[in-house]
UniProtKB/TrEMBL annotation:
It comes from Chryseobacterium potabilaquae. It comes from the Bacteria. Pfam families: Epimerase (PF01370). Its EC number is 1.1.1.364. One of its GO terms (molecular function) is oxidoreductase activity. Keywords: NAD, Oxidoreductase. This is dTDP-4-oxo-6-deoxy-D-allose reductase. InterPro entries: Epimerase_deHydtase, NAD(P)-bd_dom_sf. It is an enzyme of class 1 (oxidoreductase). Residues 4-249 form the NAD-dependent epimerase/dehydratase domain.
């Protein structure tokens, strides 16, 4: 049995990771600024500490001597509405950077055996993602650096931080660049949800014969990885001896319009897509339509070569599970508001 600390375990990926590792018989301690909204704590950990990881005293409390593994997933982040409007840039960079500065140092001081850091595909250069049909997100394309958001710049900085601790202090690190992880028990409303959850929510909320909004022209492309496969990929990476940054994502690329149409098809409703952009979008929301890069897709050759495993589940399978869960949440919320 390993003694494992999951930072950010009150979030979507951290909760699922905690559940998997706890079921495998490990002792799990979670720390997050908030409790998990959808998992009972007994499902995902043995100890749950509510604390702000920007405070070094909290980090010292959580990471004790004798910890085998630390999974660092804590960050100030969200969907396009949170990341790409520019309104939260300072908080995103400050909060996440401080957390990683605290955690990397404490892991060295407490002699943690192995550390996982969750980076993001947002750190890839914007100029390699201008063609929606041919984006380049191969790991070697990271430099010269030019992320399209301050969130991406902070992720790139923190990658280098952990690698520097690896070189200078022998910190045993594993770094994954996540590509749009989705699934049940995650944020599905309020502005921090990712595209799959947003599409499922919009479809679930709309009556048959209505329409849903898709920001931009809907031709921007992405790939999306279901949470169970993400957790499997993270665990296999941690068990490997590969210490360079590597992509964890799906290579099944779709346009945002196709993602929306998939959610509509799963619902069996007859709905129409309203692509909202430009002046029409600004007049309605009061800010420029936040889209991110035009194209992004995971490149998994390096992971296959170094880890010996690959994603197999089609996007639709994960979307069906996600839509079912979000539809249930929408119905519960509707009932609560009607009482």
């Amino acid at each position: 049995m390993k003694k494992i600390v999951i930072l950010g375990g009150g979030g979507f990926i951290g909760g699922h990771l905690g559940k998997r590792l706890k079921n495998e018989g490990h002792h799990i301690r979670i720390c997050d600024i908030k409790k998990h909204e959808y998992f009972d704590h007994s499902e995902i950990c043995d100890e749950f500490i509510v604390g702000d990881l920007t405070d070094p005293k909290v980090v010292k409390l959580v990471i004790e001597d004798g910890v085998d593994e630390v999974y660092q997933l804590a960050a100030d982040m969200g969907g396009a509405l949170y990341i790409f409007t520019g309104e939260h840039d300072a908080d995103v960079m400050h909060n996440s950077a401080i957390i990683n500065l605290n955690v990397s140092r404490e892991c060295v001081l407490k002699k943690v055996k192995k550390v996982f850091y969750s980076s993001s595909a947002c750190m890839y250069p914007e100029h390699n993602q201008l063609d929606p049909n041919n984006p380049n997100c191969e790991e070697s394309s990271a430099y010269p650096a030019n992320p399209d958001s301050e969130y991406g710049w902070e992720k790139l900085f923190s990658e280098r931080l952990y690698l520097a601790y690896n070189r200078n202090y022998n910190l045993n690190v594993r770094i994954a660049r996540f590509h749009n992880i989705f699934g049940p028990q995650g944020t599905w409303f309020g502005g921090k949800e990712k595209s799959p959850a947003a599409m499922c929510r919009k479809v679930a909320e709309e009556m048959d014969g209505g329409q849903i909004e898709v920001w931009g022209n809907g031709k921007q492309t992405r790939s999306f990885l279901y949470i169970d496969e993400c957790v499997e990929a993270v665990i296999r990476l941690m068990e490997s001896d590969f210490s360079e940054p590597v992509n964890i994502g799906s290579e099944e690329m779709v346009s945002i319009n196709e993602l929306a149409q998939m959610a509509i098809g799963i619902s069996q409703k007859k709905l129409y897509i309203n692509n909202l952009e430009g002046k029409e979008f600004f007049d309605k929301y009061g800010f420029k339509c936040p889209l991110g890069v035009k194209g992004r897709n995971s490149h998994n050759k390096l992971y296959k070569e170094k880890i010996g495993w690959e994603v197999s589940q089609p996007l639709r399978v994960g979307m069906e599970k996600t839509y079912q869960w979000i539809s249930e949440q929408v119905q519960k919320k509707t009932v609560e508001h009607s009482v």
